[in-house]
Amino acid sequence: MARDPYERFAERYDLFFGSFDDHDPVIVEFFRALFERHNVRSVLDCACGTGRDLHLFRSLGFEVYGSDISEAMLAQAERNLASCGENVPLARVDFRELRRHYDRDFDAVVCLSSSFFEVPDEAELLKAFSSMHGVLREGGILVLTSGTSDKMWREKPRFIPEVNRGDFTRLFVIDYMGKGARFNVLDIYHGEAHRDLQLWSITYNRVYLRDDLERVLEAADFRELQFFGSYLFQPYDTATSDTLIAVAQKRDSRGLSERVAREMTSREL
User: Fold this and answer.
1) CATH label, 10-150+206-268, candidates 3.10.180.10, 2.40.50.100, 3.40.50.150, 3.50.30.20
2) Which of 51, 82, 182, 193 has the fewest beta carbons closer than 10 A?
3) CA 212 vs CA 25, 155, 157, 268: distances in Å
4) Amino acid 264: pLDDT
5) Contact by Cβ (8 Å): 155, 241
6) 190 Cβ contact partners less than 8 Å away, ≥ 6 residues apart
7) pLDDT digits (tens, 9 = 90+) for 234-254
8) pLDDT grade, residue 261 (50/70/90)?
């Protein structure tokens, strides 16, 4: 079995955030409003990492499941959720093969924080999106989020400060390589009691932007695609948006049949 690339990073991952259970109210309201709009009751986070978004969804009252390919991240998720008194079903599953594990459908599947960059090419991305499509109920939605926008990819910043508080700084150092990139995460501990520097890197063979997502989502038979540039539901702008959010809906054959019947009736009248 290939070595888990997150083995050395899982315990430090949550240093991105101030507290595991402290969520940005704008993001909370985004998911609350989006899921309410689409009658969501059950959610599968198919790249749940350390479980922070699972906690967010549980706090909103949804039935929540989490899966991830990384054993280290799942172990950290279990510890994090237990510390908050939460018991969320977790499973080690490749998001290209969700139906092998789940024999039920969900109202929403989410794949957040650029997790879909893990697949190396569009053929594998299509396999992933088709897998996510396969465990959605008719009319259910897939939500994708990424901090790598068209604007960022065009400007190609080399250094991005992610965290700078008290005695800790986290810096992204990005190596751009054709259509892919290596994200180096530099953690600097500069307190009186602890001075250290730790480096962790992840390489993505392919970075997927708005047009890539649209093309592959449509190939996976998703419809009603929407792209937002912020968690305030602002339309995505390739020139100015710093965040890329995609919402795609699985075709509802019942709703489609009803619309066709209405159109036929109106033509007959």
Assistant:
1) 3.40.50.150
2) 193
3) 30, 18, 21, 41
4) 39
5) no
6) 167, 168, 169
7) 999 999 999 999 999 999 876
8) very low
